[in-house]
Design goal:
With 211 residues, the protein is α+β, with helices and mostly antiparallel strands. The protein has helices at 3-9, 24-36, 54-60, 69-72, 87-101, 109-121, 124-148, 161-167, 202-205; strands spanning 46-51, 75-82, 152-153, 175-184. It binds flavin mononucleotide. Flavin mononucleotide is lined by residues 11-12, 14, 154-158, 179, 197. The site of flavin mononucleotide (FMN) has 10 residues, from loops.
Length: 211
């Protein structure tokens, strides 16, 4: 089985089965896959919020362009980026790297200096855009994992990030929501499940350079 077969199985679900549930293991695996996603400098400027609470999911529908799938999904994943990472964040990361790898702090000095150069010399706006890019990469990893596990999902940008940040207290923690993914089981009434995929042909989206 190739990943492409699972990616052909998946589609952006519009109607979820509101009765379906996910197991604790499903959620644990999702969190671990997110944790293992790669990031620039290894800085992991992100947080995954997993909401398995119908009341909270319902409260988010009005700030998600009234899309019912937010409430009907078995769970809602909110992928947030860490805002304006600073010197202390970078220093903590280097110390954690030393602890987990056994490397000495002296041997990590040039790594630390490049991190400090980045966090101290990059404008806040660019750092936030950079952090958001990292979250999108983790979202891609999650989409592949969900497809492989045959857990239905729909990546979404159609929501008010400011409202999510307020309702989920992300503001207070210095995070901001970037992308959300309702997950669960497709409802058989969802006509989109039967639609063929609209994709450009391989000669348009790829180029092979061999000589
Ligand atoms: C970053 C991102 C944001 C998206 N936002 C929404 C959304 O807000 N609502 C929605 O119904 N679909 C959303 N989609 C789904 C896309 O429309 C869908 O993935 C695309 O049309 C390809 O179709 P497929 O995923 O079924 O193959 C989003 C997809 C991505 C990757």
């Amino acid at each position: 089985m190739y990943l492409k077969d699972d990616l052909s199985w998946r589609y952006a679900v519009q109607v979820f089965d509101s009765q379906a549930t996910l197991s604790k293991n499903d959620i644990d695996q999702i969190i671990e896959v997110f944790r293992l996603a790669p990031s620039s400098f290894g800085l992991q400027p992100w947080k995954l919020i997993v909401i398995e609470n119908k009341d909270i999911q319902k409260s988010l529908v009005p700030v998600s362009y009234n899309q019912a799938k937010i409430a009907d999904a078995s769970a809602l994943l909110v992928l947030a980026y860490r805002k304006n990472i600073d010197e202390q964040y970078a220093i903590d990361h280097v110390e954690n790297t030393a602890k987990t790898t056994g490397a000495s702090l002296e041997s990590l000095e040039s790594y630390k200096n490049s991190l400090l150069g980045f966090v101290n010399n990059t404008p806040e706006e660019h750092k936030n855009a950079w952090a958001k890019n990292q979250v999108y990469l983790a979202a891609g990893v999650l989409v592949a994992h969900l497809a492989q596990q045959h857990i239905d999902a729909c990546c979404m940008e159609g929501f008010s990030s400011a409202d999510y940040d307020r309702i989920l207290w992300l503001d207070a923690q210095n995070y901001s929501s970037a992308v959300i993914i309702p997950i669960g089981k497709r409802n058989e009434s969802d006509l989109f499940s039967k639609s063929p995929k609209t994709r450009f042909s391989t000669d348009i989206i790829s180029q092979r350079i061999t000589s």
